[in-house]
Amino acid sequence: MSNASSGDATSRIGPLANLPVFYKLGGKRVVLVGGGEPALWKAELLSATGARVEVFAEAFADGFHDLAQTPPSGEIVLVPKRWHPDDLKSAALAVGAFSNETEAGAFAAAARAAGVPVNVVDRPAFCDFQFGAIVNRSPLIVGISTDGAAPVFGQAVRSLIEGLLPESFKLWAAAARDLRREGGRFGDTPGEKRRFWQRFAELALRNADRGPRESDFTQLSEYGVETEAHPVIFIEVGQDADDLTLGAVRQLRSADEIFFDVGIPAAILDFARREARRHELNEGETDAQSLAHEISRSAANNARVVRLRLRACKSPSIFPEGDILRSAGVAVRIIPTADGHGDNG
Predict the structure, then answer these.
(1) According to a count of CB atoms within 10 Å of the terminal CB, is the N or C end of the chain lower?
(2) pLDDT reported for residue 220
(3) 181 with 194, same domain?
(4) Which helix (H) or strand (E) holds 118?
């Protein structure tokens, strides 16, 4: 009746211009070549990660000496000489800022010969990696890249995200990092632990104007293990993911199992967690009774089940399998669509 999968074609990630990674540099050596303003910002950024930053230049712009005296985190060492290929040995990263393309190419070649990933400021052809715009709520860090195509657009997106993530979020993120060391407190199974972190995230979002309090952790710890079955969620969708309501998106993000019609756009399924189990319903082979039985079996295991159906018309949503589930005593909830159809069953 259905094809179940946690990684089929409908859930695969789309092509990426770059791999978004977050690289630990604490205590590692980074070589930075250049004494101008572009190199000054890179020195500050790299030091903020805890790296030891060695800056090679024959002259340094204003600000370098002050930065070296009071670095954000890792040590900044100013080396008043021209760089040499031997300087790149044992470096974790190499970054250069050059006005001369020939020297930029030589630096990139030397770094690669030494097996060191290299970035040359404003010269993407010589780069193994790029610096994107960042939103710093460390340990919560958001990186934004346009693959060098539109840096100003990336900065505009950063400003938008900064407005959505208040400074207090760094306190919630730090609390989450500390709580992970006490994982045994929050459930015995992966599902129970995931529910705890879902409650944690909801609490943080509701209290974005402040940091966490000790009473918050007490409340989360005393919440207990969920024993009540979750209602089966029914959502009718069209072809445009932008039409999903916020409630529908939240349900998809928390779903453990998703039963969906053939033809549901991948952009809609992308809202679900990648580990959620997906059941593609083959058109013409799915009768309401069999589908209700399969959904009921999933729900009986305390899974959060979502049924996605393509909208066939503008009339109110009708789910025959939902009526069968209700008759069998299974709780059902229909999420209102963008045009208001739906109920709380």
Answers:
(1) N
(2) 78
(3) yes
(4) strand 118-120
Phi/psi of residue 107, nearest 5 degrees: -65, -45
Residue 228's pLDDT is 58
Peptide bond into 139 cis (omega under 30): yes
With CA atoms as reference, report the closest residue to 72 among 39, 50, 94, 96: 50
232-237 and 29-33 as β-strands: parallel, antiparallel, unpaired?
A: unpaired
Contact between residue 282 and residue 3 where contact means Cβ atoms under 8 Å apart: yes
Same domain? 137 vs 174: no
Query: Whole domain around residue 69: which residue ranges?
Result: 29-131
Cα(7)–Cα(262) distance, integer angstroms: 16
Cα atoms found within 13 Å of the Cα of residue 344, Cβ hemisphere only: 1
Domain CATH code at residue 81: 3.40.50.720
Percent of the chain with pLDDT over 70: 87
Q: Phi and psi of 204, rounded to 5°?
A: -65, -40
204 contacts 169 by C-beta, under 8 angstroms = yes
Helix, strand, or coil (residue 309): strand
Q: How many domains does the chain have?
A: 4
CA distance 52 to 73: 9
- CA-only gyration radius of the chain, Å: 26
Query: What amino acid is encoded at 111 in this protein?
Result: A
CA distance linking residue 101 with residue 120, whole number of Å:
10
Best CA proximity match to 219, nearest among 239, 238, 204: 204
Asked if residue 292 lies in contact with residue 279, where contact means CB atoms within 8 angstroms, the answer is no
Of 90, 110, 86, the residue nearest 98 (C-alpha): 110
For residue 301, being part of any structural domain is answered with yes
What 3 state SS string does 152-199 have?
Answer: HHHHHHHHHHHHHCCCCHHHHHHHHHHHHHHHHHHCCCHHHHHHHHHH
CA distance 137 to 225: 31
Token pair of 188 as six digits? 């015995």
Enumerate the β-bridge partners of residue 135: 142
Whether 121 and 42 have beta carbons less than 8 Å apart is answered as yes
Average model confidence (pLDDT) across the chain: 86
The pTM score is 0.67
